[in-house]
Amino acid sequence: MSGAGYRLIGDAEQGNVLQALQGTLTRYRYGQPGDPSFVYQFERAVEKVFVAPHCLATNSCTSALLAALAALGIGPGDEVLVPGYTFIATIAAIVHSGATPVLCEIDDTLTLDSADVERKITGRSRAIMPVHMMGAPADMDAIMTLARAHGLLVVEDAAQACGGRYRGRALGTIGDVGAHSLNYFKVITAGEGGFLLTSSAEVYERAYAFHDHGFKPMRDGASEANSLFGMNLRMSDLTGAVALAQFERLDAVLTATRRVNAALAEAIGTLPGLRRRRRVDAPGDCATSLIYLFDDAEIAAKVAAALDTTVLRSSGRHYYGNMPQLQALASGHRGPAPFRGRPDSALSDCGVGTLPQTDDLLARAVGLSTGVSDWYAGTGFGVRLDSSAEEVAAAGARFREVVEWAQR
Ligand SMILES: *Cc1c(COP(=O)(O)O)cnc(C)c1O
C-alpha cells in the first residue's frame, strides 16, 4: 500500500533533505544565512504551477482545512454542506471549527450532488465543501453557480486530487479556498503535510496567522501580530524538502497514473452489469483509481471479497455510516469533540439511511488502484504506477474473471 508519488522517491528528495539539514529545519531562518527555506520554495512553486495567488504549506491537509474555515470566519451557528462520502478529516475540521456539518448526497461521479446541496440550504448555511474523491473532480460549475446564487463560500477538499484539473483549472483554485494533502497515501507525498490555496490576500493572511500563532505572513513585522489566536500548524523544512522534490515530479506521477489507468481500463474492457463512474472532466482526473459501479450490490460485494478488498461503502471512515462519532456528537456526548459548547441538535439526522442515494451507490462501487493503493479506502486490489504491461494485463484479466464468476 502506498500513494503514487511515494513510488518515485529518489535522488532529488534525498538531496533536498541533506541540504535542509544544513539549515534551521523550520520555515524560518532566524538570522542564519542561506537560501529561502524549502517550505517557502515549495509554496512559490505551487503558486506558479497551479496559478494560485497564495499557497500556505501546513503540517497536514486536516490542518489546512481547519485554517481555511478559521480564515473564512466560519464557526458556531454556521452550517457547512459536505458530502456523506469523504474521508472523516473533512467532517472533523467542520466539527472542530464549531460549525455544523450538513451531510449531502453524492451522485454517480461519487462527488457532491449539487441538486441535494440545493435542497439542504437553509438560512444558516455558510459554505459548501466539495471533495474531489478518488482523484476525480467534483462538478465545480454546478457548485459555484449554486454558491453564488445563495451567497455561500466554497472550500474545496482536494486531498485526493493533487494536480487534477476541472475545465483546465487546478483543483483547489476554483473555490474561495482549496486544501491539499501530502500524506503517504496521496498523489504526491512528504510522509505528512498539506497546503491551502486562495486568491484572497485577506484570507491568506488570516490562514497564515491561524497556522502560526497569529503572525503575519513570513513573520513580517512580528510585533504587529494578527488579532486572532493562532495554532502551530507549520510545515517542517524537512517535510518541505521532500514536498518540493515531489511537487517537481507531479507531471511524471500523473502521466504514469494516467497511463496505467487507461491500460487497466482497456484490459478490462466492457462487461455487462457494470460501468465506470461518471467523470465530469476525464482529462482532469488524476487517474489514481478506476471505479466501477455495478447494477447489483450483491455481485459487487462478491467481486470485492474475491479480490480481497471491499465495496466502497465498507471502506473505513470514508462513508458517513462508518462514522459513529457523528451520532455520538448528535446525542450530546462531549467525547467526540471536546471543545464544542453544547450538543448539536442540527446533527440529529446522520445515521445510516439518511442519504439513501449515497448508501446505494457506495454499496455497488468497487475501486481498483492505479496509483494510490489503500486497503482502508477500498482500493486494496489493482496496479501501481510502475506496474509492467504484463502485470496490468494480468490484473485486468483477474477482474474480468471474477466478475464473470460472480455473475454466474
Ligand atoms: C487524506 C484526506 C484528508 C486529510 O489529509 P491529511 O493530510 O492526512 O490530514 C482530508 N480529506 C480527504 C478527502 C482525504 O482523503
Structural features, described:
The protein is an alpha/beta fold and 408 residues long. Helices cover 36% and strands 13% of the residues. Helix 6 (140-150) links the parallel strand 4 (125-128) and strand 5 (153-157). The mean pLDDT is 95. Residues 60-62, 86-87, 89-90, 131, 157, 159-160, 181, 183, 194 line the site of pyridoxal-5'-phosphate (PLP). Pyridoxal-5'-phosphate (PLP) is lined by residues 60-62, 86-87, 89-90, 131, 157, 159-160, 181, 183, 194.
Structural classification: alpha/beta
**Sequence of strands across the biggest β-sheet:** 1-9-8-5-4-2-3
Helix count from the secondary structure assignment = 13
What profile does the largest beta sheet have?
7 strands, mixed
Give the topology string: H per helix, E per strand: HHEHEHEHEHEEEEEHHHEEHHHEEH
Ligand inventory reads: pyridoxal-5'-phosphate
Strand content: 5-15%
Write the layout of secondary structure elements.
Layout (H helix, E strand, L loop, with lengths): L10 H10 L17 H13 L3 E5 L2 H11 L7 E5 L4 H10 L2 E5 L9 H7 L4 E4 L11 H11 L2 E5 L7 E2 L2 E2 L6 E5 L12 E5 L2 H11 L25 H12 L1 H19 L5 E3 L12 E6 L2 H10 L17 H7 L25 H8 L1 E6 L11 E2 L5 H19 L1
Pyridoxal-5'-phosphate binds next to α3 and α4.
Task: Characterize this entry briefly.
The protein contains 13 helices and 13 strands. It is of the alpha/beta class.
Keywords, separated by commas or semicolons:
binds pyridoxal-5'-phosphate, 13 strands, 13 helices, 408 residues, alpha/beta, 4-stranded mixed sheet
